[in-house]
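pasting for the record
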Amino acid sequence: MRVALARILLMRPDAMLLDEPSNHLDLESLIWLEQFLKNYDGALLMTSHDREFMNRIVNKVVEIDGGSLTAYSGNYEFYQQQRAIADRQQQAQFERQQAMLAKEIAFIERFKARASHAAQVQSRVKKLEKIDRVEPPKRRQKVSFDFQPAPRCGEDVVTLKNVHKGYGSRSIYEGLDFQVRRRERWCVMGINGAGKSTLLKLVAGASEPDNGTVARGPSVRMGYFAQHAMEVLEGERSVFQTLEDAFPQAGQAPLRALAGCFGFSGDEIEKKCRVLSGGEKARLVMALMLFDPPNLLVLDEPTNHLDIATKEMLITALSQYEGTMLFVSHDRHFLAALSNRVLELTPEGIHTYGGGYTEYVERTGQEAPGLRN
């Protein structure tokens, strides 16, 4: 992704069309791109699911809804505010018109059989026929789901002692000591290649240390989300069949509610896994993980490909989650909303910070390791 972007930027174009440019970029690259686009003199048209990125870059938002386009001047936050105001005004106008229509219809029904009121009744019928009807504001479909509580585990969730890990001649960790305790929510920060995904793989058991030990508590039940997790979906099974295979005792109604919560409504629930987009696969894997939640979630870039509505639903669900989390994300809204600890990986070693991502930014003066505001 960085190479593809660099190729476009070197062309010095007058206009750029960018489709989800923040996907697959680490936080450092994303912030660099942000700075570049702020200073770019040409025209920019892009799609994005990164709220913070849009707030800093765009000065117009075009909303596509029900086949119509509406333009708003301002960034994403301003668009949200204006959209809410417009919805309230339209709802009030709709309710006023409905009250007026009810009054007129009541008059017509009351006097339609009386010859003395025939002219008045006819006049009001014609008036109603000519009225432009106000539609209520479109409601974005929101499906909520009550996730089960995670089972409790002991205080020591994961312990890494004197861990060494390398790939070929390249050393990633030399004597890493790190502990995760119950209900901690660690976000892992570090420049590209610092070993963020490697750490998550070690904790998840997807990779073994060259030396040292990685121990999970005896009552720890783990859920691991990584991009390769989407490859294990069985291509010929539908979304609903996949959920049913995983939870045969759950019953249709809860599984349909779960699917709807993760953006699969109507006929979409019958889609075969082989035709799902990257975002749809990610949503399905996340649904499988959270229906019966483990008490340790290890998440590697869980928001890649997710639209804003699904991200918000995921943040809401994970805010109420009482288990332990260790995750990597380049979405600053996700980081700020869910972390209560920060692990920073640097060439000099690891640094830990109490408090979440917002406190990390305030204390270090940087949004990502190696980058100053």
